[in-house]
Design brief:
Blueprint: H1 3-10, H2 13-32, E1 37-38, E2 43-44, E3 47-53, H3 60-75, E4 81-84, H4 87-93, H5 98-109, E5 126-130, E6 133-136, E7 153-162, E8 171-179, H6 183-199, H7 201-207, E9 211-212, E10 223-224, H8 226-245, E11 249-250, E12 256-258, H9 259-265, H10 267-271, E13 279-281, E14 284-288, H11 293-302, E15 313-322, E16 338-348, H12 353-370, E17 376-382, H13 393-409, E18 414-418, E19 427-433, E20 439-448, H14 451-454, E21 459-460, E22 466-467, E23 470-479, H15 480-490, E24 504-508, H16 514-526, E25 531-533, H17 540-549, E26 554-558, H18 560-565, E27 567-572, E28 577-582, H19 583-595
């Protein structure tokens, strides 16, 4: 969650409920395993967790028993009592809890809080007690366990977690749970969890025959089938055509770049851990390209002297980039090592920032709306403590002021988040919610006063002098792979007809109707549509069911009547029967839906 969202969450009743429920769960676990070593139990988005060192792995039956005991504790209406203690008192209370003793040492030194977060000053050490359980904690909590609804809690799962996230430390058991105000809220949340499993793009991608991963190729490197590539093509082609209409020019800058360019741009110092190892040829180190901006800026410079009259120049590219993500962090298409980014870099004068931001905003809004991502918010991502940022306060100040002015001029409602900026400048990130209410960062617009100067970019201004251009970094859907994963889940694989890899399955009642359907397919293809003639030796009913399982928008069935009338019997993937429609009417209907990028099928 972004910083402002986190702050609001920490002040909410749900945060207190979940934090308190985590303590109740820890009490139940310690009662079940008196020898347990317990660590921390923070609230997280949609729930909480607590980490334990236990004598044996927890089983599903254990979770049921723990949950039952939690409800008993809650019914006791025990107060959460806070007490400030000295470090010596704290050590005595937790003398048999080595993880708590380590946390107390950190608190005593003032270096970090009980969750391992850095602190700017030495904190007060406090404990919270409910019933027989005592925990090292700064709160906040509800007043008593009576403020927790026993019908609105559930333990979800157990996972392994290293102490403080360090693989060199002890492996612990992390118990995840969720807590809500009401049983209805819990029921809605559990429904979303189950629905998310059904919509998982990794599951649907395999079922719909869109993509695969292979150990022979390597982790994080997806392989797309013909249908998957058609989906990719439609997604990218839509943005490409839209960018062209908005005045963007498409370029191509390859896959390899000399490492020295990234040293000069600042990416090497701030990004080297995300780059694949260098390839060395004749003492020159090359890197697989992890980002486009230095290449686009080099292209701008190599194209010769530029005048202010040429500005803005908008370079867009669908380039495959390579990020050395950790194997354990790879997640289907949403976290890969080879990603195709719909990247753009706009070279403009300072006076053009607002108008170029407005143009990019219009483009992003149109794309998100087409995909039915109408519920989104904008995060103004700024510098924060501890981050890796190029040090140039004057340029950062100008970039932040320009970005704020552009947001305000377009009446964009936004919130600020420190520590989320790119290393070279602030950015406006678009966070969209899918149909399940899950938030995804998709689009971004960034203002960069720093890299153009570092790479020696100039243009001749109206005054005849050399000036350094400003660069706006802009991505609409981010990466094709990640956006595809989000879109698969957003539509549950039932894509709008314009996007569907196969738009219609053509199914004969008998073999003698096959020649007619092949003619239908030819007419549809000539009209720019994507039919598939199902000529398998399966029964008609099985073909219809298979097409529905494949979530193909239309099933066109043909028998003697349809052949005679030059028509098709149209069924929708929902099961709705539109009856016979003349082919001369059906094709224009679908063409109109495709052209308008409609979400409807009729």
């Amino acid at each position: 969650m972004a910083e402002k969202t986190v702050e609001r969450y920490q002040d909410s009743d749900l945060y207190r409920i979940r934090h308190s429920t985590a303590h109740v769960m820890a009490q139940a676990v310690v009662e079940m395993f008196p020898e347990a070593k317990y660590t921390i139990g923070p609230p997280v988005e949609d729930g909480f967790y607590y980490d334990f060192e236990l004598p044996r792995p927890l089983t599903p039956e254990d979770l049921q028993g723990i949950e039952q005991r939690m409800r008993q504790i809650i019914s006791g209406r025990h107060a959460f009592v806070r007490k400030a203690v000295s470090s010596d008192e704290a050590r005595q209370i937790f003398k048999n809890q080595p993880y708590k003793l380590e946390l107390i040492e950190g608190l005593e030194k003032g270096g970090m809080d009980e969750y391992g977060n850095p602190l700017s000053e030495k904190p007060e050490i406090s404990i919270y007690t409910q019933d027989t359980f005592v925990d090292l904690c700064r709160g906040p909590h509800v007043a008593s366990t009576s403020d927790i609804n026993p019908a609105a809690i559930k333990l979800m799962s157990v996972a392994g977690a290293y102490w403080r996230g360090d693989e060199h430390n002890q492996m612990l058991q992390r118990v995840y749970g969720t807590a809500w105000r009401s049983a209805k809220e819990l029921e809605e949340y559990l429904w979303k969890i189950e629905e998310a499993k059904k919509r998982d793009h990794r599951k649907l991608g395999k079922e719909l025959g869109l993509f695969h991963f292979s150990e022979d190729v390597g982790p994080g490197l997806p392989l797309f089938t013909p249908r998957g590539e058609m989906l990719r093509y439609q997604m990218e082609n839509y943005v490409r055509e839209l960018q062209t209409r908005y005045g963007y020019d498409h370029v191509w800058t390859g896959h390899l770049v000399k490492e020295d360019l990234y040293r000069r741009s600042g990416h090497y110092d701030n990004y080297k851990d995300s780059m694949f190892p260098p390839m060395v040829d004749e003492n020159i180190s090359f890197r697989l390209k992890p980002m486009n901006c230095p290449s686009h800026m080099t292209l701008f410079r190599e194209m010769g002297r530029h005048s202010y009259r040429e500005m803005p120049m908008r370079f867009a590219e669908f380039a495959t980039l390579y990020r050395y993500e950790k194997t354990g962090e790879l997640t289907g298409l949403t976290r890969v090592r080879a990603l195709t980014q719909d990247d753009c870099h706009i070279f403009c004068t300072p006076e053009q920032i607002e108008s170029e931001f407005t143009l990019a905003l219009r483009l992003i809004t149109e794309v998100l709306s087409t995909y039915n991502f109408t519920d989104y918010k904008v995060r103004l991502s700024l510098r924060g403590e501890g981050g890796k940022y190029v040090q140039d306060d004057e340029k950062w100040t100008r970039a932040e002021a320009a970005l704020r002015a552009s947001l305000d001029a377009n009446q964009v409602d936004y919130f600020e988040a420190t520590g989320e900026a790119a290393f070279y400048g602030p950015k406006a990130d678009f966070l969209a919610r899918d149909v399940l209410g899950r938030e995804w960062q998709l689009s971004t617009i960034q203002v960069d006063f720093i890299q153009p100067a570092r790479l020696g970019l100039t243009y001749i201004g109206e005054d005849g002098a050399e000036h350094t251009p400003v660069v706006l970094h802009r991505a609409v859907t981010g990466s094709t792979e990640r956006f595809m994963g989000v879109v698969i889940e957003h539509f549950a694989g039932a894509f709008p007809v314009w996007l569907a890899p196969v738009q219609a399955a053509l199914i004969p009642i008998a073999d003698r109707h096959m020649p007619y359907l092949r003619q239908v397919a030819e007419q549809m293809e000539a009209a720019g549509l994507r039919p598939w003639v199902d000529d398998r030796s399966e029964r008609m009913g099985a073909k219809i069911r298979d097409a529905q399982m494949q979530k193909i928008p239309y099933m066109l069935v043909a028998g003697d009547k349809e052949v005679e009338a030059s028509a098709v019997a149209v069924r929708l993937r929902s099961g709705e029967d539109l009856k016979a429609i003349p082919l001369a009417d059906f094709i224009p209907m679908v063409q109109k839906l495709v052209a308008s990028k409609s979400l409807e099928l009729k």
